[in-house]
Structure formats: C-alpha cells, structure tokens
From TrEMBL:
Keyword field contains Ligase: no
Name this protein carries in UniProt: TetR/AcrR family transcriptional regulator
DNA-binding region, residue range(s): 29-48
Superkingdom, natural source: Bacteria
InterPro entries per UniProt: Homeodomain-like_sf, HTH-type_TetR-like_transc_reg, HTH_TetR, Tet_transcr_reg_TetR-rel_C_sf
Keyword match DNA-binding: yes
Boundaries of every HTH tetR-type domain copy: 6-66
Keywords: DNA-binding
Pfam families: TetR_N (PF00440)
Gene3D superfamilies with a match to the protein in the record: Tetracycline Repressor, domain 2
C-alpha cells in the first residue's frame, strides 16, 4: 500500500492558483485539481467547505505573492528610483506569460474581473499597486497629481507588456534589448 502525502490547505491553494493561471476561473474545479495533486475530493473537504472558499484562498495567495511580496522585495532597494527600476525589471522582464505565473493569473482575472469573488480582490490589488508606484514617484520628488499620472502610465505599460507577452511573445525584447527597453521605460517615466 502506497502512503500518500498529507496535503495542506496551502497545497490546495497553490494548485488552485496554478489552475486559475492555466485555464481561468473554470479551471478551479475540485476534481481536476485533486487528480493533479494525486488525492481525492475528501482531502479538499478537510480544508475547504466549498469551491468558493478555495477560490478565495487562491485569490488571497495571488495578492500576497504577486503584490505584497514583490513590494517587499523592491523595498529593499535604497532609493525610489532604484525601487522603480527594480519593479519595472521584475514586471517587464518575462518574455512570455509562461515565465511568470502571476502574469498568467492576472490575464485570467482580467477576463473575470466582474465575478463577485474576483472583483473586490482585483480592485484592491490594482489600487495597492497604483498606490505603491505613486509613492515611488512622490518620493522621487514629483507632485502628487503628477506622481499619480505617472503611476497610471507605469501600470498600463505593465498591463500592455503582459498582454503582448501572452499574445505575441516573439515581439517582446529579450537579453540586452530587454535591459535597454526597461531603461527606456524608466527614463520615460521619470523624465522631468
């Protein structure tokens, strides 16, 4: 008899987030995720009351890992300009959405942004990201209104890049060209 590994709620949540990125909301289904994890639905019900609870946990994980942890990482840089460059490098670096699971999830969530469980998390994450980038521009000496406009421009550059990397990855710069691209984006965003 083969002993199965005892799965945690975190295992299920990670698998749900992966499924979300691969196939959208419809892919967050208990039986296929259980099969991928090599377990039964009984394991799922040990940790979650229903699919919505799993989806909520996956959305919170996405928020934590792909927003809060990125911000914490970027905040280790010494000055606002370095933080902005680091952030843009992280967000504009992938050549395909397969390179960045968080980008795949973002695309899936954009397509489902009106879903009652997705909408509040998606809005909160978007606002948090915009507020953070606005703070970087403010700390760099831009007036609040200008900092906000520049944060919107930076965020739309990220969203556009993510969509381009998904639809036409061959058009996304790589290697030295990618570094030059990030430099150009940061120079444009910070030009006075």
């Amino acid at each position: 008899m083969v002993e199965r590994k005892r799965l945690t709620a975190s295992d299920w949540t990670a698998a749900a987030l992966d499924a979300l990125g691969r196939g959208g909301l419809a892919a967050v289904a208990v039986e296929p995720i259980a099969a991928r994890l090599g377990t039964t639905k009984g394991s799922f019900y040990w940790h979650f009351s229903n699919r919505d609870a799993l989806l909520e946990a996956a959305l919170l994980r996405w928020e934590r890992v792909h927003t809060e942890e990125i911000i914490a990482l970027v905040d280790t840089d010494p000055d606002p300009h370095s933080r902005l460059r680091h952030l843009m490098t992280l967000t504009l670096a992938p050549t395909t959405t397969a390179d960045r699971p968080g980008h795949r999830v973002l695309l899936a969530l954009q397509a489902s942004a009106s879903h009652p469980l997705v909408a509040p998390v998606f809005a909160r994450v978007t606002q948090r990201r915009l507020d953070y980038v606005t703070g970087l521009f403010t700390a760099s000496g831009f007036p609040p209104e200008e900092a906000r406009r520049r944060s919107l421009l930076a965020y739309t550059a990220y969203l556009g890049h993510t969509n381009l990397a998904d639809a036409s990855p061959e058009l996304v710069p790589v290697g030295a060209e990618q570094r030059d691209y990030v430099d150009a984006v940061v120079a444009t965003l910070t030009r006075r």
